[in-house]
Design brief:
- The complex is a heterodimer of chains A (431) and B (188).
- Chain A is mainly beta.
- Chain A has two domains: 155 residues, Rossmann fold, CATH 3.40.50; 262 residues, Neuraminidase (6 Propeller), CATH 2.120.10.
- Helix content of chain A is 13%, strand content 44%.
- In chain A, strands 2, 3, 4, 5, 6 and 7 form a six-stranded mixed beta sheet that branches. A five-stranded antiparallel beta sheet of chain A has the order 1-30-29-28-27. In chain A, strands 10-9-8-31 form a four-stranded antiparallel beta sheet, with no helix packed on it.
- Chain A is elongated.
- The N terminus of chain A is likely disordered.
- Chain B has a domain of 127 residues: 60s Ribosomal Protein L30, Chain: A.
- In chain B, 41% of the residues are buried.
- The N terminus of chain B is likely disordered.
Chain lengths: 431, 188
């Protein structure tokens, strides 16, 4: 019986792994030293039935992607405990691992599963967390992400972002004639769901602060229009379809207004549109291109891209208007700003020597730091905990997504199978 | 101690059960399938745009009314594709001499056919941020529109739309491709 269980365990592990790699090709590249990453062991969960998801592997990947942890390879594990009482701490101390996670997945009534896990401190031989979940089999990935969040918060003191989502645009081919899709997926790229398909370009998705809606630009009927779509019901509302540009929607922190770019008055300018109704109110006034508005997290000002000085640079203007103040002076091209959730950093697209990079400016000292290797990097978006930036880049002529930690230490690419993937936006925490 | 631990685990389970239940509700409400169906496709989007190549030089309308414009260099809906595309230098919205000829030919057609209308589509290459490129594409489309207006085309005959880098003519990532993608398409 024990032998049989072992075979089952092995089988389900193998199956779990193979589907994992077949579905998604997630490659993680640690670009700089990982000296500050915490060594942790996520022991494969005791599986008493065949389930499709390898919970421990998902947790391992989550924690590794954060750049804060260095999960050990399961090959190096001295044994395979599946609950706290089975942990032989001396073995794990010898491996110099700080923490061990053990757990089990057990079938329960009605085709459901009980998932339990414990987080143990190796040097004090103590239990730091111990919890149990009862879920349907299709929720096992979600539970794994939830466990990742709990471990992350317990050990770093910061909130995890593993249960959040990303939205992005795919294009089946780069020239016209293909299909454009707006997709919402888990933060790790799994479970992609198409929320809108169109034969015309879709661009500039932006999450509402409560994570229930996406604003975006659609070119259906050969005109640019700004649409707000409910992610859950799919219901759509066109909020701007003026002559010329209707672009770059950005939600106010209170979710009641959109900052947008309109050229209805002859030139691309920033307007504030009240979702409750009324005409958009113009915020900028220059002969140049003014676009890509984003709200400061406190809602008091807008940062946007303008080439009023000859080249695109970032400017800040108060919501009451007035003279915009230039923020960027480093390089001849700084565009597509986005604030970190705490307002400390401003990420942007930065050009240097003909290559485009993702850079962040520390708003306290105005220092600009380049985070990526460069090429065609664009569309940065912060994780809701502010630790990572997801962005679009290209690899071998294909558009892909990548993520980099705000300190530039960890960089990874998220290889989604087909299509060109672009304009990732990380969701806020669910409210 | 062990009893306490068990109680803790039990309480934690209850709390998480509750939050899981809430989560599950959300996921079901996501009704990702239903949402997909409801939203796909956007009305009028599929095939709304036939593409100018489909209406190539063999079209049938308006050609002989175009004020004697003939051959490749002519404007209007029956001109060859190359007779309806104006190319631009990098980071520039200035109509070059070669583009000027094309603008003039199409302006003649529009002046001769006051009921005809054109959509001027501005495009950029893939470099730079997407919404800024929408601005650049519009700048190019507006440059063509202004020239056409100066040549006597009525305002109501022209509309601009900028696709920025979203609809490249060719898919390459080199200078040769970029040269073909920085353009205004004069479509009818």
């Amino acid at each position: 019986m024990k032998f049989f269980a072992r075979i089952m365990l092995l089988l389900s592990l193998l199956l779990g792994m193979s589907t994992l790699y077949a579905e998604e090709d997630l490659t993680i590249e640690i670009t700089k030293g990982v000296e500050r990453a915490l060594p942790i062991a996520i022991v494969p969960f005791g599986l008493q039935s065949s389930v499709s998801e390898d919970v421990a592997a998902i947790i391992s990947q989550d924690l590794r992607r954060s750049g804060r942890f260095e999960p050990l390879s399961p090959q190096s594990y001295p044994d395979r405990p599946s609950e706290f009482s089975q942990i032989n701490f001396a073995n794990w101390r010898a491996l110099q691992v700080d923490h061990v996670v053990v757990g089990q997945v057990k079938p329960s009534a009605g085709g459901r599963y009980t998932v339990q896990f414990q987080l143990a401190g190796v040097f004090q031989s103590n239990q730091l967390l111990g919890m149990s979940f009862d879920v349907k089999s299709n929720m096992l990935r979600q539970v794994a992400h939830q466990i990742s969040d709990l471990i992350y918060e317990k050990l770093t003191g910061e909130r995890g972002a593993f249960t959040t989502r990303i939205a992005y645009i795919t294009a089946s081919q780069q020239t016209s004639g293909g299909t454009y899709s707006l997709v919402v997926a888990d933060a790790d790229g799994y479970n992609p769901q198409v929320v809108l398909r169109s034969s015309q370009p879709l661009m500039s998705p932006s999450w509402s602060p409560d994570g229930s809606k996406l604003a975006y630009v659609s070119f259906e009927n050969r005109r640019a229009q700004i649409v707000v779509q409910d992610v859950y019901s799919g219901s759509r509302q066109t909020v701007a379809a003026f002559p010329g540009i209707n672009g770059a929607p950005s939600w106010s922190p209170d979710g009641r207004r959109l900052a947008v770019t309109l050229s209805k008055d002859g030139n691309p300018e920033i307007y504030i549109y009240n979702l409750g109704g009324g005409e958009p109110v113009r915020l900028t006034n220059s002969k140049a291109i003014n676009t890509e508005p984003v709200w400061s997290p406190d809602g008091s000002s807008i940062v946007f891209t303008s080439d009023r000085g000859g080249s695109p640079q970032l400017y800040r203007v108060g919501l009451n208007g007035g003279q915009p103040q230039r923020l960027t002076f480093d390089g001849d091209y700084n565009a597509r700003p986005v604030f970190s959730p705490d307002g400390r950093y401003l990420a942007m697209v930065h050009r240097k020597g003909g290559r485009f990079y993702i850079a962040v400016m520390d708003m306290q000292n105005r220092q600009l730091r380049v985070l990526t290797e460069g090429g065609l990097d664009e569309s940065p978006s912060f994780a809701p905990n502010g630790r990572m930036i997801i962005y679009a880049t290209s690899q071998g002529g294909r558009e892909i997504l990548a993520a980099v930690s705000v300190d530039g230490r960890v960089r990874q690419s998220l290889g989604l199978r087909d299509s060109n993937v672009r304009e990732p936006v990380w969701s806020p925490y669910n409210r | 101690m062990k009893a306490m631990l068990k109680t803790f685990v039990a309480v934690a389970s209850l709390i998480l059960l509750a939050s899981c239940a809430a989560n599950r509700g959300t996921t079901d409400a996501t009704g990702t399938e239903a949402a997909t169906e409801a939203a796909t496709p956007p009305s009028g989007a599929p095939g709304a745009y036939q593409g100018y190549d489909a209406r190539g030089a063999t079209g049938t309308y308006g050609y002989d009314k175009s004020g004697g414009v003939t051959g490749q260099g002519g404007g209007g809906p029956n001109a060859s594709a190359s007779g309806r595309v104006v190319y631009f230098d990098y980071d520039s919205a200035e109509v070059r001499a070669d583009g000027r000829t094309i603008v003039e030919a199409n302006a003649r057609y529009l002046v001769a056919n006051p009921s005809a209308a054109t959509v001027l589509e501005g495009h950029t290459d893939e470099r730079g941020s997407r919404e800024y490129n929408i601005g650049l594409g519009e700048r190019r489309a507006e440059a063509v529109r202004r020239q056409m207006a100066a040549l006597g085309v009525a305002p109501q005959q022209m509309r601009t739309v900028s696709y920025g880098e979203e609809r490249p003519a060719v898919a390459g990532h080199d200078e040769a491709s970029y040269t073909q993608n920085r353009r205004v398409e004069i479509t009818y």
